[in-house]
Amino acid sequence: MTARPTTVAPLSLAELGSLTSSVADDVRAGLHEVHADSESRWHVRLRCDDEVDVWLISWTQEQGTQLHDHGGSSGAFTVVSGALSEAVWTPGAEVLTETERVEGDSVLFGEHYVHDVRNVHAETAVSVHAYSPPLSQMNYYDVDGHQLTRLASVWTDDPEAPAPDLEAAS
């Protein structure tokens, strides 16, 4: 997969936040069916155009991502139900800061945002994610002491595509 050239301006962070909040309301109203899969995070693309990708994702207990960014895309996510734990790399402080995101919380982030999201609770969590410009690459990281080290980069338009074997990359 290669980056998609686009002449459309990306959505602003405020627009991304408004979009994920609105879609989260639609999910709560039953307009989108949600599934849960204990083997892998269930996800479905709800929108894909030159401007934005929108995804609906469910997370059963202990499911999570690797530490990653979105390869130049800005984004937002809103927790529809349940709770997610988000660890965010803080440049300058050179630390990961963990915050619990609960139903109704929205997170807005720019193109250099590095985070790891996981469900540490027994209740399945559901979230809506949007990326603008649409996702085309993800970069995966590790923290070594107080330094962020890139382990791998993957061309993908799917935020839930399997991460590369990061153990082999480190």
Question: Can you describe this structure in just a few lines?
Answer:
The chain has 170 residues and is mainly β.
Structure notes:
The protein is mainly beta. Helices cover 12% and strands 43% of the residues. Strand 1 and strand 2 (53-59) form a beta hairpin. The mean pLDDT is 91. It contains two helices and eleven strands, in the order αβββββββββββα. The chain has helices at 13-28, 166-169, and strands at residues 42-48, 53-59, 68-69, 74-81, 83-90, 95-102, 106-109, 115-118, 125-132, 137-144, 147-155. The strands form three sheets. Strands 1-2-9-4-7 form a five-stranded antiparallel sheet, with helices on one face. Strands 3-10-11 form a three-stranded antiparallel sheet, with no helix packed on it. A three-stranded antiparallel sheet has the order 6-5-8, with no helix packed on it. The two termini are 24 Å apart. The longest helix has 16 residues, at 13-28. The chain is globular and about 45 Å long.
